[in-house]
Amino acid sequence: MTDPAQNGPDILSLKPGDGVTAFFVVRKKELKTKKDGTPYLLFEFGDHTGRMPATLWDGAQAVHAAVRVGDTVKIRGTVGEYNDALQIALEKIRKAEPQDGVDPKMFLRSENLDLDGQFRALMDEMALIANPDVRRLMDAVFSGEGISERFREAPGGKLWHHAYLGGLVQHTAAVLAVCGRAAAFHPKVDRDVLAAGAVLHDIGKLEEYEYHRGFIEFSDRGRLFGHVALGAQKVTQTIEEISADSPFPEELHRRIVHMILSHHGRLEQGAPVLPMTPEAMILHYADEMDSKANALDHIIEKEKTGDSRWSKYVQLLDRFIYLGE
After folding, report:
1. How confident is the model at residue 1 (pLDDT cuts 50, 70, 90)?
2. Which phi and psi (to 5°) does residue 42 adopt?
3. CATH topology (fold) of 108-301
4. Element (H, E) at 248
5. Where are the domains of the chain?
6. CA 236, 239, 243 angle in degrees (round to 5)?
């Protein structure tokens, strides 16, 4: 496999005037037409650091037929500026060949996390669940074929938060820890139900996202249903399966699935229902806090490279972010 360090310059390190020869993954591709009717190609390339648009003016139709979204390509070009944004003017482009030894996973963002260690720590926390029915559900979910392996590696988001390998287990562990601390101040909260909801709230992301092509994208089921519905469906199916041996309490079923359905907190944020139990309310705010804090970490890391003390305007938060001195 090609080492990312030997691949060529990272996208986010490129500056106007730089010549670039490197492997990237094709995230977007669009055949467009100039005013005189001549076709050209507009690409978006990506690697583990970010994304950048690129244009190809010559031989556009032939390349359009040969290169698809999700392909790994080797490109040569020069970095310029267009509408105050960097853009690569392509001179050559070809699909990667087997002898290039390029693994698409090299283009995925990674945080050098101890994925096995994080997953083991999460399982250790789950082992503290005392309610035998809740434990039975959790054991059944994670004994499913390939679930544990996928949970270790899966991203926690597409672009906004925890959008890197291992992001899901990192986010889940943080949400579980915050929920545990909150429960210590509210003794009437069912800690086992809260722990189950914290661990399972994003289980639907295992189906929502695909990342085998070198960037995180929605699966068909993910785009059609979303991880909230997929997660509720997964837990309900698992409960039906384990109920064949011994009935699962309906009250637990309602409470845990309600937490999954309501964890986004607001209807306009994709929650089909609002949080209506203490456990669901705590889970929502724990999820909200960790996801936004992680997103801010990424924004600050990405933009704190020049003299500006403020980020660009962040549409999703409706504000600028202070970067400091």
Report:
1. very low
2. -115, 120
3. Hypothetical protein af1432 (1.10.3210)
4. none
5. 4-103, 108-301
6. 140
Q: What is the CATH number of domain 4-103?
A: 2.40.50.140
pLDDT higher for 228 or 309?
Answer: 228
Q: Which pTM value belongs to this model?
A: 0.84
Establish how many alpha carbons lie within 13 A of residue 150's alpha carbon, considering only the half-sphere containing its beta carbon.
Answer: 18
CB-based contacts of 232, cutoff 8 Å, min separation 6: 204, 257, 260, 261
Distances from the Cα of 218 to the Cα of 158, 204, 211, 213, 294, angstroms: 8, 12, 9, 12, 21
Alpha-carbon span 142 to 146, nearest angstrom: 8
Q: How many CA atoms lie within 13 A of 133 on its CB side?
A: 15
The answer to whether the CB of 37 falls within 8 A of the CB of 57 is no
Q: Are 311 and 320 in contact (CB under 8 A)?
A: yes
Of 268, 122, 145, 135, the closest CA to residue 202 belongs to 122
What digits encode the pLDDT tens for the residues 202-227? 999 999 999 888 888 999 999 999 99
Q: Round to whole Å and give the CA distance between 23 and 8.
A: 7
DSSP state, residue 70: T
- Number of CB atoms found within 10 A of residue 171's CB: 22
User: Cα(55)–Cα(104) distance, rounded to whole angstroms?
Assistant: 22
Q: How many CB atoms lie within 10 A of CB 101?
A: 12
Write phi, then psi, for 26 (nearest 5 degrees): -85, 110
Question: Strands 72-82 and 85-95, how do they pair?
Answer: antiparallel
Beta strands in the chain (DSSP E): 19-33, 39-46, 51-56, 72-82, 85-95, 209-210, 217-218
